[in-house]
Every structure is written in C-alpha cells, then in structure tokens.
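To: structure subgroup
Subject: Chain for Friday's discussion

All,

I'm putting the inputs and outputs inline so they're searchable in the archive.
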Amino acid sequence: MGHLIGSASAEIEAGLDEVWAVVQDVMRAPEWQGGLDKLTALERGADGRPTLVDSESDIKIKRVNARVRIHYEDPTRLSWVQESGDLKSLKAVWALGDLAGDGSGRCESPRASAAGADPSGPGRPGFGACR
C-alpha cells in the first residue's frame, strides 16, 4: 500500500480545555472520527488513559487493523504511531491551540488516513469540524 497523507484544521468555538477533554478521551473517538470503527485498550498509563490500543478502520477500499501507541502532551497534543498492523506505517497527531487567547480553539489533524473527523459528533455540540 502506498503512502497516504492528509491534514485538516478547523477553528472551534470552545475553550482549549473543552476541546482537549474530547480529544484525549480516545476510547470515544469512534463516535466522531469518521472511518474509525472500533478501539480496544490493551495498556493504560498510571492516569488510566489508554496508551496502547488495537484499532479497526474502514478506509473505503478495505478494512484495516492497527496496533497504535498513544502519546499525550496535555493539553495541546495527542499523537499515535503504529506498532503493528495492516498498513506499512501510520503516524498521526491532533494539535490544539488557543486562538489569540479569545477562548476559541484550533484543531489541526495531520494524519495518514482517508477518514474525515468531526469532533462535533453525538453529544458534542458546538465543536465544529476538524476534517
């Protein structure tokens, strides 16, 4: 499989802390991350957050599985790297920032995935899209 690279950014009318709360809740990501169908936590850090997960994604041309290692850099960055799986490699990041200190968030998501993302998914009104 060849290299597939994508990126997106969106201004979100929510504070950085509120946006981070959604992004760092990794196990709920399939609710709003298009194409991400299932996550299974294999390891958790001392704070209880998943650090190693198995994922199942539908990338339209086939279903792919990946075991990814997650790194949290509260409250502005969450990244993951494939340790094993169907793809040759997978590296991704969610980078968050506060726009001009006015309480509005910015979400940037460079990722090796064909799937779109929508953090405003079920139960998350007002987040806008990051796709």
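Points worth raising on Friday:
The two ends are 23 Å apart (CA to CA).
The longest strand covers residues 63-73.

D.
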